[in-house]
Amino acid sequence: MIPGAFDYHSPKTLDEAINLLNDLGEDAKILAGGHSLLPMMKWRLAEPAHLVDISRLSDLDYIKEENGFLCLGAMVTESGLENSELIAEKYPILKDTSEVIADPLVRNLASIGGNIAHGDPANDHPATMLALNAIVVVCGPNGSKREINIDEFFLGPLWTALGENEILTEIKIPMPKQQSGGCYIKLERKVGDYAIAASAVTLDFENGKCSSSGIALTNVGPTPVRAKDAQDVLIGTDVSNEVIEQASNLAAEASQPVGDHRGSEEYKRGVVKTLTGRAILKAKNRAMGGN
Amino acid sequence: MSKCKTSPEVGGMGHSVKRKEDARFIRGQGTYVDDVVRPGMVYMDIVRSPYAHAKIKSINTEKALAHPGVAAVITGETLKEYNLHMMPTLMSDTQMVLPIDKVCYQSQEVAAVIGTDRYSVADGIELVEVEYEPLPVVVDPFKATDSDAPIIRDDKEGQESNHIWHWEEGDKAATEEIFNNSDVVVKERIYIPRIHVASIETCGCVSEFDKATGQLTVWMTTQAPHAIRTVLALVAGHVGLQEDKIRVISPDIGGGFGGKVPVYPGYVIAIAASVVTGLPVKWIEDRRENLQADSFARDYHMDCEIAADKDGTLNGLRIKTLADNGYADAAANPSKYPAGMFSICTGSYDFKNAFVEVDGVYTNKPPGGVAYRCSFRVTEAVHAIERMVDMVADEIMMDAAELRMKNFIPKDAFPYHSPTGWEYDSGDYHAALQLAMDNIGYDELLKEQKEKRERGEFMGIGICSFTEVVGAGPSKDFDILGIKMFDSSEIRIHPTGKAIARFGTKSQGQGHETTYAQIIAEELGIPFTDVSVEEGDTDTAPYGLGTYASRSTPTAGAAAAMACRKIKAKAKKIAAHLLETSEEDLEWEVGKFSVKGVPDKAVTIQDIAFAAYTNHPQGLEAGLEATHYYDPPNLTFPFGSYIAVVDIDSGTGEVKVRRFMAVDDCGNIINPMIVEGQIHGGLTQGLAPALYEEISYDDEGNITGGSFMEYLVPTAVETPHWETDKTITPSPHHPIGAKGVGESPTVGAPPAIVNAVVDALSHLGVKHIDIPITPEKVWRAIHKNEVA
Amino acid sequence: MEKKSITININGSPRTGEVEDRLLLVHFIRDDCALTGTHIGCDSTHCGACTVLLDGTAVKSCTVLAVQADGREVATIEGMEGEALHPLQEGFFEEHGLQCGFCTPGMIMSAKHLLDNNPKPSEEEIRCGISGNLCRCTGYQNIVKSVQYASNKLQSSESAGGK
Ligand SMILES: Cc1cc2nc3c(=O)[nH]c(=O)nc-3n(C[C@H](O)[C@H](O)[C@H](O)COP(=O)(O)OP(=O)(O)OC[C@H]3O[C@@H](n4cnc5c(N)ncnc54)[C@H](O)[C@@H]3O)c2cc1C
Ligand code: FES
Ligand code: FES
To answer: Does any ligand 1 atom lie closer than 6 A to the CB of residue A124?
Structure first.
C-alpha cells in the first residue's frame, strides 16, 4: 500500500505545469485530487516517475455561467458541485451525479476534471457529460487551447483524446433551455462502490413535445455509452409511459456490459432498462417544474 | 435487570455506566500494535504467491538485497535451518510458515523482506524474483475427494486424499426411522460462503528479542495472548525460546471477532526475524493481505432435511455438511469438536431425533476457519435450522411464527437434553418470539404485505428464533491443543480500598475494563471507578484462553465473581475481628458487613481492606486478594427472536431492510448500554453476509473479494436503524446468571433477513436463496423466474 | 532518493520534516510526528480510519501525499480537546459511540466536518455524512446518536453564549 518512488512537482501556473508535462513526457502524470491515481499507485498498478500537481492552481476552481455555458474549472471538487446553489437550482443532474460518487470524504478531494480525464467508464461524470453534450476545454504547450466535443473525448478504457502534454482545464455545458430537465440514477452495491450501471438523461421540451434529449450510460461498455436510438425515439413525443418503455429498451440494447462481480451481462442490461426508465420520468418531471 | 442492587455510584450489575476505556480512545490515545515503536526497530513486508497451487522453482533475492534500506530477505530455507518453516495449527494440523518447495493458496507467504522502514520493504518485496510452476488446483470442495484430484497435502505422511476428518453426532438409525414415518420431508442444499471478520485494524506485531537475556517480547494483535505464548514455546522451544522468557502483550485491539485468535505465519516470521537479527521487527499487514490470507470464516455446504407432520410437528432433522477448510485445518475449534458446536442445529425446537455429519476437506484456499463472532459453527447451524423451519412452514402453508410456537422447547422442559447431546441450561422461547411479534406489530405487517402483494409490490417478513451455545467450556470436554478452556481472574484489594483485577481474556472492544469492574463492584461494593482492570500481558495476567466465542463473561466474568467471593470470605473474618463479634453474627449488604440487627455497627469493605494490611487478626494472613480459575460446569445457551421486514425494488432487485426487531435473552445483564451496543454491532455483522459480503474464488483459485473494493463491508447508509428489546432468563449454573451476548445477533440476523426476502418472493415459487442475497439473485427470481 | 523539506501546521503547531515525495500524509502524521490517533485500516481509500481535516476539510490522509499538504493546516483527533473535551468526543463517550475505538478518531473528524457544514443534520444526513468511514463494531446507531448529541450541545452552547 505504498507507492513506488517518483518526483513531485508543484507548478505555480498553468503554463509552468504544461511546460513540465512537455519536458517530462510520458513519465509524468498530472495529479489532481489524486483519488483515482494514488490508489492505483499504492497498489503499484501505476508507477509514474513524475507527478505534476495541479491542485494548487487556484484559477482552475470555479463554477460560473458565461456566454451561454455553465463553465466548470477542472479542479472543482465533487463536494463543490454538491454544495453549489447554482448547480442545485439549474443543473440538478450534476448534483445527482456528484452525490453518488464514492463517499463524502473522497468527494472532498476528487475533481471533476480528474473524473473525466481519467477516462474510466466506471466513473460517473462521463455519462452525465455525454447526456449534457458538454465540451472539454484543453490547454497545451505554447498557449494552445482546443475544445473537444464530449462525443470525441472517450476513446477506450482509461484512454481519452487528451495529449500527454495537455491539461483539461474546463468543462463547458450548454445552459439549459426554457423547459428542460435532467437526471442521473445509479445502482451501486453500497456507498463507495462504482456503478453496477447508471443512466444519465436530459430532456428539452418545446410546446409539450420533447425537442431534444441526451441519454448516456455508466459502466456498461469500454467507454461511457451514448444511447442514441433511445434519445431519438423520445423526440417529437410527449414522453408518455409507452415511449419511455421503448426508450428504456433501446438503452438496454445500446449498452455493452460484460459480466463481472457486479452482475451478469443480462442483469446489467435489465438494470439499464430500469434506471433509464426512471431517469427519463424524473427528467420529464423536472422539466415540467417538479422535482 | 429492572432492579439494581448497587447505587449508580458503585455501578454494579445492571447499571449503564459509561466505559472507562473510552477516555483514551476518544482522544486518539489508544495504543494499537502499529502505535508501538521500539528503539532501532526495523520493518517487515511479505512476498505473496500469485498462484493458488504452484511449485516454487527458485527464489532470487539479489535485487531486493541490493535495494537501499533492505537488510535481509527471509525464505523457507532460512527458517528451515531453525526448523521453523512449519508450525502447528490450533487444530493439531500443520501449516507452512514459509514454503520450501510449493505454495498451496493464492497470497500465501513466500518470503519476507526486512528493512529500515515501511517504504523500502514495500519496494523490496517487488524485487524478490520467484519462479513458479503452476500445479492443478482444487477449488471446488465437492471435487476435492475425486480420485483424480491432486493431493494438496502431499507433505503429510499417510495423507492419500484431500479428506481431513469425518465427524457425526446423533442417532442415525432412529432419525432414519422418523424420516420414514413422517408426512412431509423438506430438503435443501444451503451454502454459507466464506466471509471474513474484517476488523478495521488488520493484524500485526512488533517482535523484540534481547540477545543478551534471551528475552522475547511480542506486541501482537491477539485475542488469546497466553495461548499464543504457549504455542510459541512449543514451536520454538528448540531454538531456546522458553515460556518463561516469552512475553506476549496484546495492546489495544482494533476489533477481533475471532480473526485474531490464530497464529499467522507473519507473526512467526517476524519473531524469527527479530531472533536472528537481534532487532525489534514490526510487521503490519495491509488490508489485502488481511482479507486474502488470514483465516476465513464459514464455508459450509449443508444438505439439510427436515421431517415433519402435516399439522406442523417437527420430528427429525438430518444434515450432511461439507466443510471447506482450505489448505490446512486451522480452525479455532475446541480439539474434540472439529465441526465446532454445529450439532446445536436442532435449535430451539423439540425434535425427536437428529443426525448430523460433517466432513472436512482440503482445497487450494487459505486455511481457516475461525469462529467469527460465533461460538464455533453456530452461525452455520442456526442458518440451517432457521431456513429449514421456514421451508416447512411454506410447504405445509402454515404461518412461520405459528410453526415455531408449536415446536419450541417449552419453558418447563429445561434443563433440556437435545437429541445431539447438549444440555440447554434455561430458556423461554415463546416469550421472546411473542415479544418480538408484539413490538413489531406482526399481524399488521401481514396485512400490509397482503395489500402490497395485490398491488404487485414486494415486501417480506422473516423470523429467526435462534438458540446459541457459548462459554466454552467445561474442562472435561473443551480444550485447545490440550489446554483446558477455563478462564481466570486475579483480584487485589489495595489498603485504600481500591482494586486491581487481572484477567486471562482480552477485550477487543467489548468493554472489559468496565464490565469486569462492574462485576467486582456488584460482588464487593467497591465503586467500579475504583477498580482497574488489566488484560493482555502474559507477564502479569493470570493464565486464560482469551476472548472469543462470547466466552469472556461466561468464564472470566464468572472467575471474577468467584474470586470476589473468596475475598469476601476473608473480609468477613477481618470484619468479625474489627467488630469484635463472630462471623455468624455478620450480614453482608452492598459494600459492608454489619452486625445482624445492629445496622450501624458496620465496617465497609474499604475499612476492611485497610485493616487487612494494618490490623489483620492474628492467625490470618495479611492482605486481601484472590485468584480464581473458573471451570464452567456447563455451557450457557443464550437465545432470541428476531423479525426482519424487507422491501424489494423489483426493477433492480435491491433489498432494503426496513425494520428489524431483535429480542435477545442473554441472562442477567452487567451493563445494558454495552449489551445493546454489542447487539447493534452483531446485527450489522449479520446483515453484512446476508446481503453483501463474500469471498469467492475463480476456477484457478484466484480470490475475487480481496480488498474493501470488493469485500462489501456495509456503511451507515446500508445499515438500518435497529430496534432492540430483551427478556431475561438467567443461567442457573453461572455465578451471576449471565450468558454472553456478543455473537447472538451475528448468528440470528442472517436467517431473519433471508427468510424475509424469500417470504417476499414466495408467491413466485421461491423457496431458498443462498447468501449473500445480491440484487441480481433477487432480480433473476422476479424477472427470469429463476427459483431455487 | 532526494528528500523535500516540508512544514505542515498540525493542530496549530508547525511540523517540519525531510520527506520522500511519495510519503503519504498519514505516515507523516503517525510516524514522523508520532500522532498515532490517526489510523490506517485499508489500502483502497475505503475505510476512513485515516480521516483528518486538511484546511478544514475532511480527507482520507492515506490518499494525500505529505508534500501536497506542505504549508497547509491539518487537524487530527489529538487537537480536538481544548479546555474541555470537544462535544463530539463527549458525545461518543456519552452515547457509547465506540467499541474497539479504532475507527473513532476518523469518525470524529468526519463528523466534525459534517457539523461544521451542517450544524443540525437529520439522521439520514448523518448516516450519509459518515458513509466514508467504516466501523465494524458499533453498527453505527450509537455513532449517529453521538453526532446528534454533539450537534445539540453545540447548538445550545451557541445560543447560550452567542448573544
Ligand atoms: C473509494 C473510491 C471510490 C470511488 N468511487 C467513485 C464512483 O463511484 N464514481 C466515480 O465517478 N468516481 C469514483 N471514484 C473516483 C474519484 O471520483 C476520483 O477521484 C476521480 O475519478 C478522479 O479525480 P481526481 O481529481 O482524484 O483525479 P486524479 O486521481 O488526480 O487523476 C486521475 C487521472 O486523471 C488525470 N488528470 C486529472 N486531472 C486532469 C486534468 N485536469 N487534465 C488532464 N489529466 C488529468 C491524472 O493524470 C490521472 O491519470 C472513487 C474513488 C475512490 C478512492
Ligand atoms: S486507511 Fe482506509 S481510507 Fe485511509
Ligand atoms: S469501534 Fe471498532 S471499528 Fe468502530
So the answer is: yes
Query: Which residues span the domain enclosing B221?
Result: 139-410
Flag whether pLDDT at B369 surpasses 50: yes
Query: Is pLDDT at C81 greater than 70 in this prediction?
Result: yes
Calpha distance A215→A272 (Å, rounded)? 11
Q: Which whole number is the average pLDDT over B652-679?
A: 97
Thinking of the domain C3-79, which architecture would CATH place it in? Roll (3.10)
Ligand 3 pocket test, pick from C138, C143, C146 with the greatest ligand atom count within 8 Å of Cβ, gives C138
DSSP B278: -
Which architecture characterizes domain C87-157 according to CATH? Orthogonal Bundle (1.10)
CB-nearest to A106 from C22, C45, C65 is: C45
pLDDT band at residue A194 using 50, 70 and 90 as cut-offs: very high
Residue B42: pLDDT over 80: yes
Instruction: List the subunits that have 3+ CB pairs under 8 angstroms with B.
Output: A, C
Which residues of A touch chain B, with CB atoms under 8 Å apart? 1-2, 4-5, 44, 103, 187, 189-193, 196, 261, 263-264, 266-267, 270-271, 274-275, 277-278
Which residue, among A35, A100, A187, would best test binding to B if mutated, counting the most B CBs under 10 Å from its CB?
Answer: A187
The one-letter amino acid at A237: T
**Once rounded to an integer, what is the mean pLDDT over residues C87-99?**
98
DSSP-based three-state secondary structure for B441: coil
Q: Which residue has the cell 440470528?
A: B748
pLDDT of A234 above 70: yes
A81 in contact with ligand 1, CB cutoff 6 A: no
Percent of chain C with pLDDT over 90: 94
In the reported structure, the alpha carbon of residue B392 is separated from the centroid of ligand 1 by a whole-number distance in angstroms of 51
Sign for the CA dihedral angle at A50, A56, A58, A61 comes to positive
Say what the ipTM of the complex is: 0.97
Question: All domains of chain A, ordered by start, with CATH?
Answer: 7-53 (3.30.43.10), 58-174 (3.30.465.10), 180-287 (3.30.390.50)
Is the torsion defined by CA of B221, B224, B226, B230 positive or negative? Answer: negative
Name which residue sits closest to atom 44 of ligand 1, judged by CA: A117
CATH of the domain at B146: 3.30.365.10
Torsion sign (Cα): B86, B90, B92, B95: negative
Q: How far apart are CA C18 and CA C5, in angstroms?
A: 4
Q: Domain end: B410, B443, B462, which one?
A: B410
Cβ-Cβ contacts under 8 Å, A39 against chain C: 44-45, 63
Confidence class of residue B486 from pLDDT cuts 50, 70 and 90? confident
Q: Which grid cell sits at B376?
A: 464455533
Among B630, B659, B679, residue at a domain's last position: B630
Please provide residue C147's backbone torsions phi and psi, each rounded to the nearest 5 degrees.
-70, -40
CB-based contact (8 Å) between B68 and chain A?
A: no
Span of A235-244, B56-65, B236-245, B716-725 with lowest mean pLDDT: B236-245
Instruction: Confirm whether pTM is higher than 0.90.
Output: yes
Taking contacts as CB-CB distances below 8 angstroms, the residues of chain A near C43 are 1, 42-43
Contact B318, B390 (CB under 8 A): no
Residue C161's pLDDT is 63
- Would the CB atoms of A2 and B126 count as touching at under 8 Å? no
pLDDT for C80: 98
| Overall number of domains in chain B | 2
> If you count residue pairs, one on A and one on C, with CB atoms under 8 Å apart, how many are there?
89
Task: Give the tens place of pLDDT for each residue, A99-138.
Answer: 999 999 999 999 999 999 999 999 999 999 999 999 999 9
Distance CA B674, CA B738 (A): 14
Tell the residue nearest (CA) to atom 1 of ligand 2.
Answer: C40
Task: Delimit the domains of chain C by residue range.
Answer: 3-79, 87-157
Mutate to test the pocket of ligand 1, among A101, A136, A223 (most ligand atoms within 8 A of CB): A101
pLDDT of res. B1: 42
Q: What are phi and psi of B72, to 5 degrees?
A: -160, 155
Which amino acid type is present at position B735?
P
Nearest chain A alpha carbon to C130: A104
